[in-house]
Amino acid sequence: MSQSASDLTDRDLAGAGQNRRYGLHGIKALFFDLDNTLIDTVSASRAAIAEVIRILQYEYHYTEREADMVCERFQAKLSKECFDPSKISITNLRIQHWEGAIQEVKGGTANQKLARECYFLWKTTRLEHLTLTKETRKILRGLKKVAPLLLLTNGDTETQREKIEACACQEFFDAIVVGGEQKEEKPSPSIFLHCCELLGVQAEDCVMIGDSLDTDIQGGLNAGLKATIWINKTGIVPKETSPIPHYTISSLLDLPGLLVQ
């Protein structure tokens, strides 16, 4: 019978090699992704967009279609975002995203005032919805008793640090590494090796847990980690060219059962 994360002991983790394919014994550190691994960024973003649509419709009298189109244009710009902190702040860049989206849909001159309002409403609402569930806290608390935990997240410093503050996850981690503060982000091996140095461990003794095949899993493989664990919440079928994780689970809640069976 699987133990809960809060019941894990050093002996349990050291002997957790029940999965015969690779064996998870001898783990000396666990690396966790943040977005859509520990916190539900997708749902938080959806709630934030819904709030912007509401004010565009009811305060600025946009039609439903216009409000939807503005938000769709913003999200498209966000998904293609190229951020250079030496040239512009993340705040000004994302205000520009909103400004461009509004102008593309409504025409006329740029409306920076409304763009700023949309940005800060979107940002604030999203942060308000970024929380660690009770179950996630319990799992992290239990795992921290038996191995060092490190948070490894891609993204610019301001955005990711704000998310970390919002979900109040700092207490669970021995170290926190933000990609935007390093020379290279995931999936580059260098950032994983930096994490190993911070904890004083070897790559072959570490495990990466995350939801992205392209960054978390590929990066863990590139760095030669002991194992990679992919959280596939939606049950998607990977492309044939996608990196192959050592393990796949459907939820973070399955992690203790994988480590200790």
Automatic annotation (TrEMBL):
Q: What cofactor(s) does the depicted protein rely on?
A: Mg(2+)
Superkingdom assignment: Eukaryota
Question: InterPro entries from the xrefs?
Answer: HAD-like_hydrolase, HAD-like_sf, HAD-SF_hydro_IA, HAD-SF_hydro_IA_CTE7, HAD_sf
- Name any one Pfam family assigned in the record: Hydrolase
Give the Gene Ontology MF terms in alphabetical order. Answer: N-acylneuraminate-9-phosphatase activity
Matching NCBIfam families: CTE7, HAD-SF-IA-v1
Entry coiled-coil feature ranges? none
Organism, as annotated: Thamnophis sirtalis
Q: What is this protein called?
A: N-acylneuraminate-9-phosphatase
Keywords of this protein's UniProt record, alphabetized? Hydrolase, Magnesium
